[in-house]
Amino acid sequence: MRKTLTAALLAATLLTLAACGNDDETDAGATHNDADVTFAQQMIPHHQQAIEMSELAETRAASPEVKDLAADIKGAQDPEIETMTGWLESWSEDVPGGDMSGMDHGDRSANGMEGMMSEEEMAELEAASGAEFDRLFLTMMIEHHEGAIDMAKTEQEEGEYPDAIALAEEIEKAQTAEITTMNELLGS
C-alpha cells in the first residue's frame, strides 16, 4: 500500500518536473482556456489549505502513519503549487496569495472550492492532538481530497492546456490512492 502511494507520488513529481520545462514546442505553443485558469486559481488555495492541515500533523498527530501521510501530501502539493503559479504568471493571470485568512470557507462549494474546511473546522483541527487529531485530520482530509478530485475531473473535461489536464489526472490518481489509505487508517 505504502509502495503504491509512494509510486503515485513519484509519478506526480516527475510529471510536475516535466510540466515545469518549456523545452517542448507543443507545450510552449499550447493554448489555455478559462477552465485551465480557474483550475489553477482554485487548486492553489485548495492545496495551500491541505499543506496547512498537513503541517499541523507534524506536532499533533499520534500515529506515525498519519504523520507520514501528511508529509507525503505536503511533499506532493508544494511542487504542484509552484507549477500552477508558473502557468498563471505565464498567462498573465492573477495568482492567489498565500494568506488564506481572508477567504470565506463557510460554503465549501462556493466558487467551485469543494472540500475546503471552514475557519471553525481548521480551529478545531488545530486545537486537537493525539488520536482525536488523527481522526479529525483523516476525516477532513478525505473530504478535502474529494473536493480536489471533483475540481480535477472538471479540468479534465473542460480544460485545454495539456499540462494542466495531465496534472489534473495525476491529482485524481494520487488523491484517490490517499483516500483509500486514509479510510484504512480510520478503519472504514
TrEMBL record:
Residues 1-18 form the signal peptide. The keyword RNA-binding does not apply. It comes from the Bacteria. Residues 36-186 form the DUF305 domain. Keywords: Signal. Coiled coil: none annotated. InterPro entries: DUF305_CopM-like, Ferritin-like. This is DUF305 domain-containing protein.
